[in-house]
Known about the structure:
Distance between the termini: 53 Å
Shape: globular
Largest sheet: 6 strands, mixed
Number of helices: 9
Number of strands: 10
Structural class: alpha/beta
Amino acid sequence: MNHSPALSFALVDICGLHKSFGSTEVLKGIDLQVQRKEVVCIIGKSGSGKSTLLRCINGLETFERGSLAVDGQPLQHGDANAMRELRQQVGMIFQSFNLFPHLSAGRNVMLAPTLVKDIPKEDAKVRAQALLERVGLGSLFDRMPDQLSGGQQQRVAIARALAMAPSVLLCDEITSALDPELVGEVLQVVEMLADEGMTLILVTHEMGFARKVSDRVVFMHQGLIHESGTPDDIFNRPQTPELKQFLSALRD
């Protein structure tokens, strides 16, 4: 057995991460390592720093102190090439679907691979069609975003993120803008990706879903990782008053 040392490091490696907006410190020293094929759900109250942490991982936010590496590559804001590489490794799906309104569902999925990776249009089209089929929208290639439901738009956004074949997918409250009856169809797709071995970091308030798909649940509180453990540990055996209070507030 020759294990290459390359596989021993975490896919996402965050050490001592500090981030402030003005005089407000939002992340106060985050340490988080996410392994390949791991599904990590981040829970916590609004304002605890969850979304900011995701935005740091994909380079949308700069940070003041600490280090962040994806697949062994340190994130370097000053280096445009390094940032481009990073963004190809890290897919992100947001609350709002952010589809280009003037492009059909299929063209939304094709756009980044043709622009960034120079993939020929025909190949990108075949791939986009396959990705739409994976998220259950194979027949809607030519539909415009405004002809799709919120759940369908979010599934197109997932297909679009997958089009770059990222090594990790970040999901920021991706069901919070959806009508309740549409949440399930989006979570089903995420669950399928988890089953297929995609590395996922999800900020979510769908606790039943977090319990079902996570390998690990991270509870953030006031800019720190307050508790971290298996879904069973976090939901059934919370250790701190803050997590107990957070969970009991959800049940009310």
